[in-house]
Amino acid sequence: MFPGSFDYRAPTTLDEATTVLSERGEEAKVLAGGQSLIPLLKLRLASPALLVDIGRIPGLDRIELRDGGLTIGARVRHADLERDRRLATTFALLAETAPWVSDPLVRNLGTVGGSLCHADPAGDWGSVMLALGAELVLRSRAGERVVQASSFFVAPFEPALRPDELLTEIRIPAPRGRSAGTYLKLERKVGDFATVGVALQLEMTDGHVARCGIGLTAVAPTNREATEAGAALVGKELTDEAIAKAAQLAAAAADPRDDIRGPADYKRDVVRVFVQRGLRTLRRSLEEARS
Amino acid sequence: MSAITVTVNGIEHRLEVEPRVLLVDMIRTRLGLTGTHIGCDTSNCGACTVLLEGEPVKSCTMLAVQADGRRLTTVEGLARGSELHPVQVGFHEEHGLQCGFCTPGMMLVAAALLERNPNPTPEQIRWAISGNLCRCTGYVNIVKAIQHAARLRADAAQPVAAGGAS
To answer: Across A160-246, where does the E strand assignment appear?
Structure first.
């Protein structure tokens, strides 16, 4: 299978890239790792007249810890997060999610930013960024704007990204108090898209929940944050009852469809089970870290 | 057409390619290196695996232009002349192949794994090859072959001390 013909540009600066997009953004696609885009090109599901390859722009592959927060450049690969040992403590959710994304070879090319911009409702990173309360930095010739992850996923495969814009980095705020995160994913076979995925980020101060981010994968038209479930925990101790209530609310926030991977009722219940299981695991790991 | 320069198995090639040409097709049809196979052509099977700057990637899901200025290794680049790579010896000794179609990809993944992790557990090996399918389902011997290669590498790196214990 071959992609259709396209023009190819590989700018070496961000300015050059945004200039090209300002002129031809409507007919262009941005190429990062290509692990979602190239299959679409080969299947002729996408036939852009122009590919703008950001692989030659220096500096987009950085992972930076700053003031307790984290900045991930647009071209950081899944494998980079998988291997970055600095993430194991504060941003365990990122390190834990990376090995769940596709397979090791795809992770050596595919990027976190590309995955977010692809906006596949079954993508793993969208849920993670919702759980972490991340911000996405979008650049165009007109300047820069910052969009919350919670506003980024508009519809299936439709991010809040204008044709003249480029994602340059993902910013994750510093967690409050003591934090832990985990990603639970049900897949039919290794490397598959999620049947159901749940990203959890728990932040505790003085034995009470300061923040709980819950992101859902593959159970709604987009990656979805279970906001009510997270909010219901804030200010509370993490009792079994509070966890069960949050798990129910998260399941209610899911809007899955019957498909080859399972019936909707089953998927909704997996959300409940995963939120309950995940929060209990995080509670235990924070207790163990304390003792 | 785009002018690109790629170094494959240590040899620099300058080529003019259409931007839509996939890396696997460039390797097979322009360079004549047919050890890189096309299996599923949808980035599932890993038969098209090559090493990009030492890391395994699926060359059916990468454009040749993306490889401009980069260093590639294909299965033809594993042996040093007539001396087989330890991974090749391992696949030979442990019968790590049946039909052989997945073998180039499996061996390249194994070679990259051992560079990063010289003494992998069977579980780590299985995770490393989880992007490569063997339709003969010969995974048990593939894992053994990679363990064999790890032992060969360790033996080569640590010459036996004369007189036993040191």
So the answer is: 166-172, 178-186, 196-205, 208-217, 224-225
